[in-house]
Amino acid sequence: MASTWITPIGQALADTASGIAGLTGGVAVKGILWAPRDTDVRPAAVVEMPSVDRTAADEAESQIGTRDVRLRFPVAFYFDLSEDVAYSQAQATEVVEAFVDAIDASVESGPLSPAQLSGGVIVVDAKTSVDAPEIFPPEASSGRPVIRYVCRAEVLAFIPDV
């Protein structure tokens, strides 16, 4: 049995990252669902497995016929940092800011909208917070330092009863 709401919402987040347009220098972000063993594509946005919160056992759901679910997806953005590539710290902040803005807009008309999600899943709201970036020393595979900027995409959804 395939995931009917966690994976589709995670894929919508990856699609949102891939759909960011208008970045300086025409940079394209690759949205990746679930953390791969390694990625050599940068910039990349890796949607990791979420934490899931439900309504307490002694509380009612907010709507008849649905279950309230709050998902918190870490979305890790990876960028190369080197003088000979175009991925700078300014570009990293531009991409992360564009992702935060895209998540705010995607509930109404983007990948998180009811028209885009299947199975009757309704995303009520989505917000993103951003952790401080981390810079890692050069990787053996690329030979370049890497910046990781982690966003926390929190999604409130109504899931149809099973």
Describe this structure in words.
This protein has 162 residues and is an alpha+beta fold. It has a single domain (6-160), classed as 2-Layer Sandwich (STM4215-like). The chain is built from two helices and seven strands. The chain has helices at 6-18, 89-109, and strands at residues 30-33, 44-47, 51-54, 66-80, 122-130, 134-136, 146-160. Strands 1, 2, 3, 4, 5, 6 and 7 form a seven-stranded mixed sheet that branches. The radius of gyration is 17 Å and the shape is elongated. The protein starts with 5 loop residues before the first helix and ends with a strand.
Roughly what fraction of the amino acids lie in strands?
A: 25-35%
Helix count, DSSP H or I runs of 4 or more residues: 2
| CATH topology grouping | STM4215-like
Please give the domain count.
1
What is the CATH-assigned architecture?
A: 2-Layer Sandwich
Uncertain parts: none
Helices and strands, in order, run as HEEEEHEEE
- Give the CA-based shape: elongated
Largest sheet: 7 strands, mixed
Fold blueprint:
Elements: H1 6-18, E1 30-33, E2 44-47, E3 51-54, E4 66-80, H2 89-109, E5 122-130, E6 134-136, E7 146-160
Parallel strand pairs: 1-2
Antiparallel strand pairs: 2-4, 3-4, 4-7, 5-7, 6-7
